[in-house]
ATP-dependent RNA helicase (Dracunculus medinensis), 193 residues
Amino acid sequence: MVSFGFFNKDDLCSLNEILLALPKQRRTGLFSATQAKQLEELLKFGLRDAVQITITDSQENEVVFEVTPSCLQNYYAVMTAEKKLMALIEFIRSQVEAKILVFFSTCFCVAYMKTILPVILNKRRIFAIHGKKKKNREHQVQLFRSTPKAIMLSTDVMSRGIDIPDIDWVVQFDIPKQSRLSDNFYFLFMNLI
C-alpha cells in the first residue's frame, strides 16, 4: 500500500486505472512526508516532467523551498460577526497612510461595503471590483495602483494574476467560499498575502 511506504503490482494496476480516467492535460501534485525509494518509481510511473521539491530544515541541503516570504507577518482577530464591520472600520482608520486591499466572499458584500464605507471614511479613496463588474475592473485596478492611501474592496477576482506592488495591508474579511488549489498549486489564502 502506497500509504505505508510500499506498493505492489496490484497497487500499480489500480493507480494506472485512475490515471487513465484522468484527462491527459493535467497538473498532478504528489505529496509525501517521507521519501521512499518506491516513491521514485511511482513518480516515473504516473508523472511526466516531474519536478521534486524538498523542504528541509537541514543546512546540509542547498535547495530549500520557501513557502512564504520571510518578511511576511500574519495577524488575525477572533470576534463575533456583529463586531467585524466595526473592527474593519477601526483598522482602516488606524492605517491613515496605508494602501489596503480587503477581500470579501461575495459580490454583494463588495457592493454593500462600497456604498457604506465612503460615507464613514469620507477622506479615503475607495475602489471596488468583483466578478459582476467586468467592464469597470481594469479601470478600478489602474486607479487603485496610482492612488496613494487607497482602499480596494474585492472578491477573490483580485487574487488571480493581478500584481499590485506597494500594498501595505491585505485583509481577508470573510472566509473565502473555496480554499481550493488553483491551477498554479497554491492555496487561495497564500495568494492573497
